[in-house]
Specification:
Shape: globular
Largest sheet: 7 strands, mixed
Helix content: under 10%
Radius of gyration: 13 Å
């Protein structure tokens, strides 16, 4: 059984930074790609960022590009999301996910390509 556990969320002010972590356990391999999605109140869950299985490629949604950075530590089975210059519109529940397909930009932007999901962590940015 695979589990993904997010941490690092919280309440911050606009302009602040947060780093989210997603720790994986169970039969999940370093060949899995990692992704972050978010869901704001009243909105659908949307893609934020993804990283290929070897960390060689990263992909971002336009609205976070230049502010957020996704990274991974395969030895720790952990994926990170560094979020800088946070805005009120970044307020959402952030979910991490793992995909066995490993890579492919167009696929990693799609929620249905992911096999495992975390429970989510709340990020609230006050303006």
């Amino acid at each position: 059984q695979v589990q993904l556990v997010e941490s690092g969320g919280g309440l911050v002010q606009a302009g602040d930074s947060l780093r989210l972590s997603c720790a994986a356990s169970g039969r999940i391999f370093s060949t899995y790609a990692g992704g972050w999605f978010r869901q704001a109140p009243g909105k659908e869950r949307e893609f934020v960022a993804a990283i290929s299985w070897n960390g060689g490629r990263t992909y971002y949604a336009d609205h976070v590009k230049g502010r957020f950075t996704i990274s991974s530590d395969n030895a720790k089975k952990t994926v990170y999301l560094q979020m800088n210059s946070l805005r009120a519109e970044d307020t959402a529940v952030y979910y991490c996910a793992a995909a066995h397909l490993g890579s492919g930009e167009s696929r990693l932007r799609r929620q249905r390509e992911y096999d495992y999901w975390g429970q989510g962590t709340q990020v609230t940015v006050s303006s």
